[in-house]
Specification:
Blueprint (H helix, E strand, L loop, with lengths): L1 H15 L4 E5 L4 E9 L3 E6 L3 E6 L3 E6 L3 E5 L3 E2 L7 H13 L30 E19 L10 E8 L2 E9 L4 E23 L5 E24 L8 E23 L8 E4 L1 H8 L3 E14 L2 E23 L4 E24 L1
C-alpha cells in the first residue's frame, strides 16, 4: 500500500513538475531530472527540455530519487539493490511517455559531466557558426582631426585629439573549432559629418565695404576589423551560463574628406594654402591594436544567447602632417609628425544567434 501511494503521489507531482529527481556530480553541479534507468555502472536521466542522457556513476556524487530519498552516494554506493527500483521507474516512465508528443534525441554523457544546452564536454557544439550584434554603450576612444589654419603668420595648424564616448554597433561572426574555442571576426562601422560656414560683413558711412568668411567641411568614416579567439571556461557557472575570455588583433581604417575654403576673395585669394590634411586624418585614425577581455553568455536555448563583455585595447599609429602657405611676399611650410599609443576600453551588450 505504501509503495502504491508513493507511485500515485509521484505521478501527481510529475504532472506539475516533470523533473522531480536530482543528480549531483562530483564537480559540484546539480541537475533536476527524471531518472529513467539505473544500473551498477550508470544512471539514465531525462532533463532540460526532454533531453536523454547517460552518465557513468564514477562522475556522480549522489542520486536523489523522488519518493525514495537519496538512493546512491559516492562514498557508500547504493542504498538498496538497483534492481529493486525497476518497477517504480517503469511506472513513472509510462506516465512520462504518455505525455510526450515526440521523442528527443539521445546523446551519451561522459564522466566529465554536462556542458551547456545538454552538450557533453568533449564534443563540439551542434551549431558551429554564430552571428552576434553588440551594442557598445561605452567606448573611450580618441579621434584626431585638424582645425582650419590661421590666415596670419605664423600659419600654425590646429591639430588636436578629442576623447569621445561613441555609442555604436559591432557585428561578430564566430566559428567553433572546439566546444571551448571559437575563432571570431568583429566589424565596427562609425561615421561623422561636420560643416561650418562663417561670414563677416562690414559697411560704414564712408562707403568702406569689407567681406570675409570661411567654409569648413569634415567627413570621417571609420571601419574596424578584428580577428580574435574566444575561450570558454568549464564548470564555473550553471549550464545556461558560459564565461569566456577573448583576445584579438585588428586594424581600424579611416576614410576622410576635408575642405577649407576662404570666401569673398576677389579677384584672388590673399593666401594660398596647401596640405595633406585628409591623408593625416586617415593615418592618425587608422591604428593597429590588440585587445584582451572577458565576458559571459546566458543561453536561452541552443540557438540564442545574451552576451556581455568588457575589452581593453592597446593601439598605436604614426602620422605626418605637411602644409604650405603662399603669400605675395613669402612661402611658409610646416611639418608635424605624430606618434601615439592609446589604451581604449569597450563595454558591450548584445545577442548571439547560433546556426
Amino acid at each position: 500500500m505504501k509503495t502504491i501511494f508513493i507511485i500515485l503521489f509521484s505521478v501527481t507531482l510529475f504532472a506539475q513538475y516533470p523533473y522531480p529527481d536530482s543528480l549531483l556530480l562530483k564537480d559540484g553541479r546539480s541537475y533536476p531530472c527524471l531518472i529513467s534507468g539505473i544500473s551498477e555502472l550508470y544512471v539514465e536521466i531525462i532533463y532540460s527540455q526532454g533531453r536523454k542522457e547517460q552518465t557513468n556513476l564514477q562522475a556522480v556524487e549522489h542520486i536523489y530519487l523522488e519518493g525514495k530519498g537519496i538512493i546512491y552516494t559516492a562514498v557508500n554506493g547504493f542504498k538498496n539493490d538497483p534492481e529493486l527500483f525497476e518497477s517504480y521507474l517503469s511506472t513513472r516512465m509510462k506516465v512520462y511517455e504518455s505525455q510526450q508528443v515526440s521523442e528527443p534525441d539521445e546523446e551519451n554523457l561522459n564522466v566529465s559531466g554536462f556542458d551547456y544546452a545538454g552538450k557533453t564536454d568533449n564534443c563540439s557544439p551542434k551549431n558551429k557558426w554564430s552571428f552576434g550584434v553588440l551594442l557598445i554603450p561605452y567606448y573611450s576612444g580618441v579621434v584626431y582631426t585638424i582645425e582650419g589654419q590661421s590666415t596670419y603668420p605664423p600659419y600654425e595648424p590646429y591639430i588636436y585629439s578629442s576623447a569621445v564616448n561613441q555609442i555604436n554597433m559591432e557585428a561578430q561572426l564566430a566559428y567553433a573549432l572546439l566546444n571551448e574555442i571559437s575563432l571570431t571576426l568583429d566589424v565596427t562601422y562609425t561615421a561623422s559629418y561636420y560643416e561650418r560656414r562663417q561670414e563677416n560683413h562690414v559697411r560704414n558711412q564712408n562707403g568702406y565695404e569689407y567681406d570675409n568668411g570661411s567654409l569648413s567641411k569634415s567627413d570621417l568614416t571609420l571601419l574596424d576589423f578584428t580577428l580574435g579567439i574566444k575561450y570558454y571556461f568549464k564548470n564555473i557557472m550553471p549550464e545556461q551560463v558560459r564565461v569566456y575570455a577573448v583576445a584579438g588583433l585588428g586594424k581600424q581604417f579611416a576614410f576622410a574628406e576635408e575642405k577649407y575654403e576662404q570666401l569673398f576673395q576677389d579677384p584672388s585669394p590673399i593666401i594660398i594654402s596647401e596640405d595633406n590634411g585628409e591623408e593625416f586624418i586617415e593615418d592618425s585614425n587608422s591604428p593597429f591594436y590588440f585587445n584582451l577581455g572577458f565576458g559571459a553568455e546566458y543561453f536561452f536555448n541552443e540557438s540564442l544567447s545574451l552576451t556581455s563583455n568588457i575589452r581593453f585595447f592597446y593601439s598605436t599609429f604614426e602620422a605626418k602632417y605637411n602644409s604650405r602657405q603662399i603669400t605675395e611676399f613669402e612661402t611658409y611650410t610646416t611639418s608635424n609628425e605624430l606618434k601615439e599609443s592609446d589604451f581604449i576600453t569597450r563595454v558591450g551588450l548584445g545577442l548571439n544567434f547560433y546556426f
